[in-house]
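Changelog-linked ticket: phosphoric acid mono(formamide)ester example.
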Amino acid sequence: MQLSTKHLLGIRDLQPQDIQIILDTAIQFKEVLQRPVKKVPSLRDITIVNLFYENSTRTRISFELAEKRLSADTINFAASASSVSKGETLLDTVNNILSMKVDLVVMRHSASGAPHFLAKHIPAAIINAGDGINEHPTQALLDAFSIRENLGGLEGKRIAIIGDIMHSRVALSNIYLLKKMGAEVMVSGPPTLIPKYMEEAFGVKVEYNLKKALQWCDVANVLRIQLERQNQVLFSSLREYNLAYGVKRELLDSIGKEIILMHPGPINRGVEIDSDVADSKQSIILQQVENGVAVRMAVLYLLGGGKVQQN
Ligand code: CP
């Protein structure tokens, strides 16, 4: 099995067949992760640099663990502790790292398009670990894997993405992926946090009433308010946001069915989701994190395993 691309820059660039291959390969790696010895030699001769220009907990640990489980050599780079603070450019930094014979670059950056820029200038394969408000492809893949695991598939399933759609790379990658795989998608949140023309541009439903969105869906993927990406006031207060769009037990009990709850993390308890709901049996938040390792192993294996069709 081989992917149609050398890089993973975004879900937008993938074919449905690529997504299928990644998700199916991740099933095999999830099985590896259940074994007493959770390590395989698949990437033994591969060197990977994790290039993080923006903070991360889950994605960074998950990639590093996935690389170690595949026996790759890994280097971790945090921009805050590097010569970036002395004025070195992104391209100079990466070219210096590549001269040390690196095969794969995993990159997170606050600027949308940073990994795409890099992919045009360096020979290594690039995996986007989140770029600005653009895409977070491995998050969408692990979300899809988790939905498949719980509902048996994606086709025809109803997924509501709730909250700050405007500033969310998770939302955009999820929309691309779910639509490519035949799911129905709705976005829900305050009008100020949902871009105009979502229906026309992406073929998703828009619902400003949270209760109606929860009644419609099989799965609600709840997003954090991305305050760090907002340069103007888009809602009155976090308390009022919680009252109107926070996912609460009382609200869930009122919709007359049991839906699955997801969240990419980090969670702001008491803002977009109440604490008891985040920790309830309806929530698969930690299952998403667990699946992230297997999904990232699959992506790394497919891009670094020498079976990739070169662009
Ligand atoms: N979901 C996610 O990207 O979390 P981190 O920012 O902690 O990596």
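Closing comment: Example verified and attached. The radius of gyration is 19 Å. The pocket of phosphoric acid mono(formamide)ester is lined by residues 56-60, 130, 136, 139, 264-266 (CB under 6 Å).
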